[in-house]
Amino acid sequence: MAFCGTSREHLAAAPAECAASDRVVGRLTDPTAVIDFFDDVHRQIDRIDILVNNACLSPKRRSPESWGGQIELDEWRWVIDINLTSAWLCSRAVVPVMMAGGWGRIVNIGSIAGRTTPRIAGPHYAAAKAGLAGLTRALAVDLAPYGITVNCLAPGWISSNMTAPADSETAREAAATIPVRRVGVPGDVAASVMFLVSNEASYVTAATIDVNGGVFAA
User: Fold this and answer.
1) 32-64 pLDDT, tens per residue?
2) What is the domain extent for residue 6?
């Protein structure tokens, strides 16, 4: 396993099985840095089978009355680059290696915000995550003949450093609106990723799978 991100704190929390040398602080929006990272990984382990694109940035609406045109252009570009362009850059870097091996799994971590009207996230985040689902479908069709599947997950409320703690009043209020009556935990998303990268999921590609307790259908 190898991890690349902008937060040393988050990288330090990576599983112990991942050597310290495989926890790289880098800019996933920098094409050169992305290529260098994956070239180094390929040299070390001689293959790349799985890519999980999990980079995320989610500025919230400034107020319930705000609208998308009030977002500064630099912020718009920043959110699109982190949430969408980075996934394309990373996929572009690893696909030739996967093609050579005749097998690969790419999982993009999207959001329910890309499938419905976002109530809290800004419209730039919703646009990026909707674009990620579209990128997933396009890559899936292109890469299917090479034994590579590409899928997207659309999590809802997941307890993390981007949301309120699961035991907070905010989370309890949110849980009351979710059909399964609880907020999600990282393990819910991780279990879905583990299925999609397995051999058992070889017939699943181009899919966007909801991991949101039924909110999308409610």
Assistant:
1) 999 999 999 999 889 999 999 999 887 766 655
2) 1-46
